[in-house]
Specification:
With 167 residues, this protein is mostly beta strands. It has 2 helices and 15 strands. The strands form 4 sheets. It has a 6-stranded antiparallel β-sheet, with helices on one face. Strands 1, 2, 5, 6 and 9 form a 5-stranded antiparallel β-sheet that branches. A hairpin with an 8-residue loop joins strand 11 and strand 12. The longest helix has 11 residues.
Length: 167
Amino acid sequence: MIASHLDGLWVAVRVHGRHEKKVAEQLSSNGYICFLPLQKKKKGVYNDSTATEPLFPGYLFCRYRAKSTFRIVQAPGVVNIVSFCNIPAIISEEEIDSIFKIVNSNLSPESWQFPQEGNMVRINSGPLVGVEGVLVSGTNPSKVVVNVVVLKRSIAVTIHNSDLIPI
């Protein structure tokens, strides 16, 4: 059994494709705190309607519970908990908070290639104040990429340079 020192920490749950919402509902109904970051996407080139889709397809985030009668991996659609050497990989509070702020802002996040290097910046005003990321575009406005290191996945938002400070 996994040690209780993981209790309450965020883990990434890998799920079968297009099962993210159902798994999140199942886990929530069994007492877990889940976070499924969603984005609005156009349904088609000639269609103006939008649909909500996961920002990280195939994954959702969940607070781990060491002592539970219902285990995360029991939920239909769950493949596994992202782990290294059979120990769940922890997603930092800072990463979760940053993604939460981005998803709940009026900005339009987009999936982005995981940057290997770049200048780190902090957003110092607006709804994303305190969010840190990698500057990937030096034009104004710029793209700031926020990483989920464990998944090697990223999302980008467009921010005015005046709202950024180097760190």
